[in-house]
Write a structure and sequence with these properties.
heterodimer, A: about 350 residues, Rossmann fold, Helicase, Ruva Protein, domain 3, 2 domains, two-stranded antiparallel sheet, 15 helices, about 15% strand, B: alpha+beta, three-stranded antiparallel β-sheet, 7 helices, MoxR-like ATPase (chain A), ATP hydrolysis activity (chain A)
């Protein structure tokens, strides 16, 4: 492949560090190579990540391993139906001397050192909490105790399981649009890995498993700078720009692009979505992928590798098709890539 | 033509009918007709040259009397003048053999030359034929009225074999033609095209159209691969493509060079480097070999 320009030695070093980071996480989470690669891309694209999947597929384990390998302060909170925004910001109790105390809550406790905020079961929290999270994700700031708190290195990781629908609150579209990726996690398919997960005692004790991951493989304070350097270093040829715009058009107007899915009226399938912010995220993530693959220019494969995870949750279907979303959207994404020519 | 000709009449030529030389009426036989028989009458009218019949003056097919219908009238020119072919049908239920008279009629003739004003008339004279009864007047007494009915005449059984053979043969041809049409229109799934052969042909037109020709050539190969696979093929898909289309496995080396050159050309903006990596003669040779592999598939 094309070697990066000599001035980019720093980027090369960081690529090696990213490789070590992935290898460390793979120690704790087996059979999830794709999810690990996507999380790494999200970290270097400075994007927030939502993990989605069945119960017990390793979503929490993956995020804990990522938080440990990433270094920096780490806070987590469990989403519940009675969780209120204030519960994230402060914590009140009676002190040993009998006087009431107000202490900063999970978000503020580590102040600006906070690098990973992990929201477990986000769909169990109420919309008020989602609203606070929206600001935290979009601006990386929170106003509390009469001042503004900044979290320059913050990345929000959230997970939700898609099995239950009772006592859950669907995230508003604006909040979902702020997540760079929604990564679907499936149990590993390969028989060897499944056997190990079931019988190897190593995988039964999550705490010890996470402890095996080397801490702070990456310097979380520098990632912001590296992320910007990557975005500047990876070039996009005019053909790639045309390609991405054609993909966008085909996704929004599949009927005009000549896409047919069995049993669906393509003229009335997609209501909207795939926002310009989504497209910007797509290119951002694709550049990180190109960098991880050792290139300083984009190829269509970079776009394709991250497209479903970055774009699928931004597509809004007509309500009549919404219930079959899990089946329609991946098929639509596949069809878009089967239809749009590159170059 | 087997006609028992009976010369009925040669019309005497008058002053007004100077142009009509004679009228001859012929019927196959003048007796022995039964209820429902057809009578074919031929009238030969000898005319002066230049005269022709006025069609409006011909009798109209239809009932003439209660026992006689005119079924058909046809006119054909003959060297001596005109020939009328008249087909009558008799419905006379005769109780004894007797002669019946068919009324005559007149037809008008006119000069067919432009500006011609001569007209004439030809008399088709009345004629007669003999009818016979079909059954006895007083048949033997029967108890069952159905016994008065007579069985139909025996007819020769036809052999269906030749007709069946012909029908089957034609049906076979029809099916074959339908199959060819369906193949041509790809009604039952995709017709396997030859995208690489088409691309190889188009490549000849690109020779000498530098520098865009090289990009166009790569694009041609891209589109041929897409068409072969039925989806858009990217560089990373090459191993899967070779699994799906083993005929191209021999060309895996050329295909990977192609994808590398394409990446450099389109996305790396290094057209010159790509051209050195995979020069033009190699492109042509590879496309020829791909077209050959496609034929063999």
């Amino acid at each position: 492949m094309n070697p990066p320009r000599p001035g980019d030695a720093m980027l090369t070093d960081w690529r090696d560090a990213a490789g070590r980071f992935e290898a460390e996480i793979a120690k704790a989470v087996v059979g999830q190579g794709r999810a690990i690669r996507l999380v790494t891309i999200a970290i270097f694209a400075r994007g927030h990540v939502m993990l989605e999947g069945d119960v017990g597929t390793g979503k929490t384990t993956l995020l804990r391993a990522v938080a440990r390998a990433l270094g920096g302060a780490y806070e987590r909170i469990e989403g519940t139906v009675d969780l209120m925004p204030t519960d994230l910001i402060y914590h009140t109790f009676l002190g040993a001397d009998g006087r009431p105390r107000v202490e900063p809550g999970p978000v503020l406790r580590q102040a600006d050192d906070l690098s990973v905020f992990f929201f477990n079961e986000i769909n169990r929290a109420r919309p008020q909490v989602h609203a606070l999270l929206l600001r935290l994700m979009a601006e990386r700031t929170v106003t509390a105790f009469e001042r503004e708190w900044r979290f320059p290195n913050l990345q929000v990781f959230a997970d939700r399981n898609r099995v239950e629908r009772e006592e859950t609150f669907e995230l508003p579209a604006a909040a979902r649009d702020r997540f760079l990726m929604e990564i679907g996690m499936e149990a590993p398919r390969d028989a060897e890995t499944r056997r190990a997960l079931a019988f190897d005692p190593r995988f039964h004790d999550t705490d010890r498993l996470i402890a095996e991951v080397a801490p702070a493989v990456l310097d979380h304070r520098s990632i912001g700078g590296i992320s910007n350097a990557i975005q500047r270093a990876v070039a996009a040829a005019p053909e790639i720009e045309t390609y991405v715009v054609a993909l966008w058009d085909a996704l929004l107007r599949p009927a005009e692009a000549g896409i047919r899915l069995p049993g669906i009226d393509m003229g009335h399938l997609v209501q909207g979505g795939a926002s310009p912010r989504g497209l910007a995220f797509l290119v951002r993530a694709a550049r990180v992928r190109a960098w991880l693959e050792g290139r300083d220019w984009l190829v269509p494969e970079d776009i394709r590798a991250i497209f479903p995870d970055v774009m699928a949750h931004r597509i809004f279907l007509e309500p009549v098709h919404e219930m079959r979303r899990a089946e329609i959207v991946p098929a639509l994404c596949r069809a878009v890539f089967d239809t749009v020519p590159a170059p | 033509m087997r006609i028992l000709a009976i010369l009925f009449l040669i019309l005497p030529a008058g002053v007004a009918t100077a142009q009509v030389r004679s009228v001859e009426l012929r019927v196959p036989r003048s007796f022995g007709y039964f209820l429902g028989d057809l009578l074919h009458v031929r009238a030969d009218i000898a005319l002066e040259p230049g005269l022709t019949v006025q069609r409006a003056s011909l009798p109209k097919p239809g009932p003439i009397t209660y026992w006689l219908d005119l079924r058909d009238v046809a006119v054909e020119p003959v060297p001596s003048g005109l020939r009328l072919r008249l087909t009558y049908q008799s419905f006379y239920a005769a109780l004894d053999p007797r002669r019946l008279e068919v009324p005559g009629f007149t037809i008008a003739l006119a000069d067919k030359s432009p500006g011609g004003t001569t007209t004439a008339q030809a008399e088709i004279p009345p004629w007669s034929f003999g009818v016979s009864p079909l059954r006895e007047i007083q048949p033997e007494k029967r108890d069952d009225p159905a016994d008065y009915l007579q069985p139909d005449g025996r007819i020769r059984r036809l052999d269906p074999a030749p007709a069946a053979t012909t029908a089957l043969t034609l049906a076979g041809f029809g099916l074959l033609a339908f199959g060819l049409l369906a193949y041509d229109r790809a009604w039952f799934g995709r017709r396997r095209g030859r995208p690489f052969a088409t691309a190889a042909k188009r490549l000849r037109h690109l020779v000498g159209t530098e520098p865009d020709g090289y990009r166009e050539a790569l694009r041609l190969i891209h589109r041929s691969l897409d068409e072969t696979d039925g989806r858009r093929l990217l560089a990373d898909d090459l191993p899967a493509f070779l699994d799906r289309h083993p005929a191209f496995r021999r060309e895996s080396e050329a295909l990977s060079r192609f994808f590398e050159a394409s990446r450099r050309t389109f996305f790396g903006r290094e057209v010159q480097a790509a051209r050195e990596f995979w020069p033009w003669p190699d492109v042509q040779a590879a496309l020829r070999r791909l077209a050959a592999a496609e034929r063999a598939a």
